[in-house]
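Internal tracking record. Fields below are filled automatically when a chain is submitted to the structure queue. Please do not edit lines marked as system-generated. If the sequence contains nonstandard residues, flag them in the REMARKS field before resubmitting.
Queue: standard
Priority: normal
Entity type: single polypeptide chain
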Amino acid sequence: MSVPDAGKLIQSLDEAAETLSRTQPSLLGVKGRLVTLINRETIVVGDIHGDYSSLQYILTKTWFRERVMDGEPVTLVCMGDYIDRGPGQVEALYTLTRLLTGHPGNVVLLKGNHEGPSDVGVSPHDFPFVLHRLYDDDSEEVYRRFRAFTDRLYTAAVIPGRALVLHGGVPVGSRRLDDVAYAHRTHPETDTLRQILWNDPRPEPGAEWSGRGVGYVFGPDVAERFLDAAGVHVLIRGHQSCETGHSVIGRVHTLFSCKLPHYGNRKAAYMEVPAQAEAAENYTGYVKTF
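SYSTEM-GENERATED OUTPUT FOLLOWS
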């Protein structure tokens, strides 16, 4: 696709923000910034990072647009990190905001750490420079509208009895889904939102401060306690590159959906969770790699 002009991108961001605030709460099960998905096939997409070709591959391979137009109960859940690093950042963002606005009952966009609160910085963050190159004097206004849009993104989605879907990881020390649902309200007094966006799993038990400088690394025991309390079997998350696009530690599944040279992964992946998925710990059979 061609890069939209500044006016089209601003309009799409504004309409997407309005959809998140006013339209979707009446169509989806929304509590705070937690979306509940019931009796719907769910297509889960990991980090995109401006890899527009991979995003298009997933949309084409899953026949998502066509199935929505046919009235099928299918939902696309994207786990954040839509921008930064890749060559098609604006194209990916524009595509997702148009999908959200056009199909508000079928698209759920979650917040990643690259769409996190303005007081928690991320590096590299080259999106503002991409906007300046493309839009010159209009770039600051485009970025302001982008921030207004990301402020309204959901924190997580839950498939009851089956899976919790979010960007980074479970908040260490928490036992309640309400802590996830209302993390945007308790930020920055608590670090729950930072942890949801930044935490990473590890094979060793327990938890300790992350080498990223934000959040924690957490073991299977920490994940299990939270998932059991939340009444789900697996955590589906993004945030980390994987050589084959997918990795598993205990009950935690990581998906990485972009293939950019500097990440070094041979493949990317997404997940198609059937509406009547088995409530089992291993969701590997639902993973699609490319």
